[in-house]
Design a protein that fits this description.
Helix content of chain A: 25-40%
Structural class of chain A: alpha/beta
Bound molecules: thiamine diphosphate, magnesium ion
Strand content of chain A: 15-25%
Largest sheet of chain B: 7 strands, parallel
Number of strands of chain B: 9
Radius of gyration of chain A: 20 Å
CATH class of the largest domain in chain A: Alpha Beta
Helix content of chain B: 40-55%
CATH superfamily of chain B: Thiamin diphosphate (ThDP)-binding fold, Pyr/PP domains
Shape of chain A: globular
Largest interface: A-B, 45 and 48 residues
Structural class of chain B: alpha/beta
Order of helices and strands of chain B: EHHEHHEHEHEEEHEHEHHH
CATH class of chain B: Alpha Beta
Number of domains of chain B: 1
Strand order of the largest sheet of chain A: 3-2-4-5-7-6-12
CATH superfamily of the largest domain in chain A: Thiamin diphosphate (ThDP)-binding fold, Pyr/PP domains
Oligomer: heterodimer
Number of domains of chain A: 2
CATH architecture of the largest domain in chain A: 3-Layer(aba) Sandwich
Distance between the termini of chain A: 46 Å
Number of helices of chain B: 11
Chain lengths: 327, 338
């Protein structure tokens, strides 16, 4: 299988879908002539031209709305936010219009659109430029929220998202763009709403997604050396959540830790833990533990920023907690 | 309503004129050294330098009183220094130190100095323009005659916030002065690919019932002259002014910009009208400075910036306990998961 960087896998997905369907177009800041702020759209403008790869002014609310309007009448826009931090400028369009349109119109209008872009704490970007907004977007019925962790899923999920008939919030991670992995050639789709058991295990279930998959796997590996068998599940889609895969695992291991680069209060893990408690409380041998970013705005200072993130040590400590290995 | 300024007039005395030259040199030197420190990875994240645009901040902020306000975007080092921020806390902020002007939590894009009524650098494009209008609203509300200067780029006027904020300022005759620092480019997008009209005074003036001027912002004196006019108008309760300051940025957008959107020749041509050179030459012509005083000024500035770097490097990092400070009025109660 070819080895691709996450960034190039996204690029391939867009190119293939644009090739397949003339209704698919890419719009956003610096996506065309500059080849994207993070080079995700490298070469697409050259290949598809200015009709389909479109640079916009810095007008997020405007071009998000333009995307939604065009989707209501049959186009399939991919709207790039340079980072999801800037989607906050467009949030009225996303939450009020994209998420509600099918519902409010009694099913007459759908909004087949993908909002995609980078996100996260990527090194000294400070409070305004480091946001992870998946908890906010996942809160809203009507939206699909996807967060690939690997190059293969970046491609497969983006292709599925572009073909989805509902608005998809497709959140990448700035620090994953250079991560390489095997990516199947051609038209291979990763289904939306399906988690992936990345590592099988029997003692504890680790739920995570996006960049924290890397540290979670490292923590599992470290504990394997101490005889702990951890099952690692990459959620991949946050809404709709693949509860079947989660519950099957938790019923097998009876213990669960949720890892996310997100604030703790009302974060993704809070919602996922609630789903598990509602369904299989009796199966649990320990309370679910969560590893999140610290509950503070994101600082510029490098050390403070690093201290907020779910490190391998913090993950291992929580796994030990649920296994009662601390004493 | 747009007017074009041409011939420079002497509007400040020698002392102020020389001070402005000094400030422009200080900003240039500060930025050059910041670029170096960025390359040696002592500064992280985004770092937008002000080289080439110095006359805009210096000529306008130079006309303010102490009780006036200013607010700008993320390309904020120049405005801070022009307002008199000590280069030490400025440099310390870039290095993320607790002695920085935002205690190491804001970084390059988020400089603040409340004591000098500097309401910050702001990194979400267009987001601070309504804040400026709010500051002007407060000045009027409190029945003072303070004014608020607000700076933003040619890219920022395409945000809804710009239109909403200027409309209310115009309607309510608020004492705000809006500068679009038109360096002809927003990241990699040239003005003609971002704006339906190229004369930005059309976009900022008539629609909001405020006078709009275009000024050659390579000329610090022209910037000052227009600003003087706008300030007088604002203090008299006549309302806001929109100023299109034509300028050019000499460096890339942030620190990793291949700059494919312009040629070396474009850049060299712009540098022939370097605002510092222009001002220096004019002051030499007026006999307000000479080569030896210039030499001395440059040496002093070098020392001042090196001292700032030394201060920054020797300053402590914020400690782990600082993560939870200044989030709310104390005590802040973190909602941690454990
Ligand atoms: C809402 C928002 N969208 C996009 C960005 C990314 N961005 C930062 S600066 C910039 C260009 C701004 O250009 P301009 O307003 O002309 O100011 P200049 O950089 O030229 O000073 C862009 C696109 C951002 N910070 N905020
Ligand atoms: Mg600009």
């Amino acid at each position: 299988m070819p080895i691709l960087a996450y960034r190039d896998a996204l690029n391939q997905a867009m190119a293939e879908e644009m090739e397949r369907d003339d209704n698919v177009y890419l719009m956003g800041e610096e996506v065309a002539e500059y080849n994207g702020a993070y080079k995700v759209s490298q070469g697409l403008w050259e290949r598809f031209g200015s009709r389909r790869v479109i640079d916009t002014p810095i007008s997020e609310e405007g071009f998000a709305g333009i995307g939604i309007g065009s989707a209501m009448v049959g186009l399939r826009p991919i709207i790039e936010f340079m980072t999801f931090s800037f989607s906050l400028v467009a949030i009225d369009q996303i939450l009020n219009n994209a998420a509600n349109m099918r519902y409010m119109s009694g099913g007459q209008f759908s909004v087949p659109i993908v909002f995609r872009g980078s996100s996260g704490m990527a090194g000294c970007l400070a409070a305004t430029h480091s946001h992870r907004l998946e908890a906010i977007y996942s809160h809203f019925p009507g939206l699909t929220v996807v967060m690939p962790a690997t190059a293969a899923d970046a491609k497969g999920l983006l292709k599925s998202s572009i073909r989805s008939d509902d608005p998809v919030i497709f959140i990448e991670h700035e620090n994953l763009y250079g991560e390489k992995g095997e990516v199947p050639d051609g038209d291979v789709l990763t289904p939306i709403g399906k988690a992936n058991v990345v590592r099988e295990g029997s003692d504890v279930t680790l739920l995570t997604y996006s960049r924290s998959l890397i540290n979670t796997l490292a923590a599992a590996e470290q504990l394997a050396g101490e005889g702990v068998s951890a099952e690692v599940i990459d959620l991949r889609t946050l809404r709709p959540l693949d509860l079947d895969t989660i519950l099957t695992s938790v019923v097998k291991t009876h213990r669960c830790v949720i890892i996310e680069e997100n604030w703790p209060y009302c974060g993704i893990g809070a919602g996922v833990a609630d789903r598990i408690y509602q369904k299989v409380f009796d199966e649990l041998d320990a309370p679910i533990r969560r590893v999140t970013v610290k509950d503070a705005p994101i600082p510029y200072n490098r050390n403070l920023e690093a201290s907020m993130l779910p490190t391998v040590d913090r993950i291992v400590a929580k796994i030990n907690d649920v296994l009662y290995r601390n004493a | 309503m747009s007017q074009v300024q041409t011939a420079p007039r002497t509007i400040v005395d020698r002392q102020t004129a020389v001070k402005w030259l000094r400030q422009m040199h200080l900003i240039r030197r500060f930025e050059e050294r910041a670029a170096f420190l960025y390359q040696s990875q002592k500064i992280g994240g985004f770092c937008h330098l002000y080289n080439g645009q110095e006359a805009c901040a210096v000529g306008s902020i130079g006309m303010l009183r102490e009780d006036d306000y200013l607010i700008t975007a993320y390309r904020d080092h120049g405005h801070a220094l022009a307002r008199g921020m000590d280069p030490k806390p400025a440099m310390a902020e870039l290095l993320g130190k607790s002695t920085g002007c935002s205690t190491g939590k804001g970084g390059s894009m988020h400089f603040f100095e409340a004591e000098k009524n500097f309401l910050g650098g702001h990194a979400i494009v267009g987001s601070h323009i309504p804040l400026a209008t709010g500051v002007a609203f407060a000045a009027k509300y409190k029945k003072t005659d303070s004014v608020c200067l607000c700076y933003f780029g040619d890219g920022a006027i395409n945000q809804g916030s710009f239109h909403e904020a200027l409309n209310m300022a115009g309607m309510w005759k608020l004492p705000a002065i809006y500068y679009v620092e038109n360096n002809l480019i927003a990241m990699g997008t040239q003005l003609e690919r971002s704006s339906a009209v190229l004369d930005l005074t059309v976009r900022g003036g008539d629609p909001f019932k405020m006078p709009a001027y275009r000024v050659d912002a390579n000329d610090v004196e022209q910037v000052a002259e227009i600003t003087q006019l706008a300030i007088a108008r604002a203090r008299a309760g006549e309302g806001p002014t929109f100023i299109e300051a034509i300028t050019y940025r000499f460096r890339g957008h942030s620190m990793s910009d291949p700059q494919k959107y312009r040629t070396k020749e474009d850049l060299e041509k712009a540098k022939q009208r370097d605002p510092i050179l222009l001002w220096e030459n004019r002051l030499l012509q007026r006999g307000w400075i000479d080569e030896s005083s210039l030499e001395q000024m440059r040496d002093e500035i070098k020392e001042e910036v090196e001292a700032a770097i030394e201060f920054a490097e020797n300053s402590p990092e914020p400690g782990p306990e600082d993560l939870y400070t200044n989030i709310t009025v104390a005590p802040y109660i973190p909602q941690e998961s454990d």
